[in-house]
Design a protein that fits this description.
Distance between the termini: 26 Å
Bound molecules: FE2/S2 (inorganic) cluster
Oligomer: single chain
Number of helices: 5
Radius of gyration: 17 Å
Strand content: 15-25%
């Protein structure tokens, strides 16, 4: 079983296709019949995804700022090509939050605390907008409210925002 890796920086200065490497753990036991994608992203900015092809082959692709690319390369060098084996930190930078989401999704341990598409019904703010605000730097419900206007009417949605913040900043490994 093989994993390929492609990286591009947003500046266009880096573009690399890294040859396949053999995987010795995890992938071989999994019977994958359908193509699927595991992805974490800041819309229009950074993303990392792993495509699981019907053959079982896995391809990791990421695009992002220099720091984000640097972090991904560091993880690969330290832990190998399989994102399930990567470790994440809880420093709270956008790349840390994004990589934590991606790694936990790859491990099957990502917790979705609010599933509905719209989170704040008074202001019609989507859950995705809340998630993106947190990824971009909002660290408290008040900040999320200021940036998105969620929670600025009846206030019943604030507990959901708090729950999302808690999961994002939990030090789970
Ligand atoms: S549901 Fe968000 S303020 Fe009412």
């Amino acid at each position: 079983m093989e994993i390929h890796d492609r990286a591009e920086s947003q500046t266009g200065l880096e573009k690399a296709e890294i040859p396949a490497q053999n995987l010795t753990m995890g992938f071989a036991e999994k019977k994958l019949v359908q193509e699927s994608v595991i992805r974490a992203e800041i819309l229009g900015r950074d993303f990392i995804e792993m495509k699981i092809l019907s053959s079982g082959e896995r391809v990791v692709h990421y695009v992002g700022c220099t720091e984000f690319s640097h972090q991904v390369l560091g993880l690969k060098q330290k832990y190998g090509p399989d994102p399930e084996h990567w470790e994440f930190s809880n420093l709270g930078n956008h790349w840390d939050l994004l990589l934590k989401e991606f790694i936990l999704k790859c491990r099957g341990g990502w917790e979705v605390v609010y599933e509905a598409k719209e989170l704040c019904h008074c202001r019609n703010v989507t859950t995705q907008t809340i998630e993106q605000a947190i990824l971009c730097g909002a660290r408290a419900t008040e900040e999320v409210s200021r940036w998105t206007s969620a929670g600025t009417a009846c206030g019943t949605c604030r507990s959901h925002v708090e729950a999302i913040l808690k999961v994002r900043f939990l030090s789970k490994r």
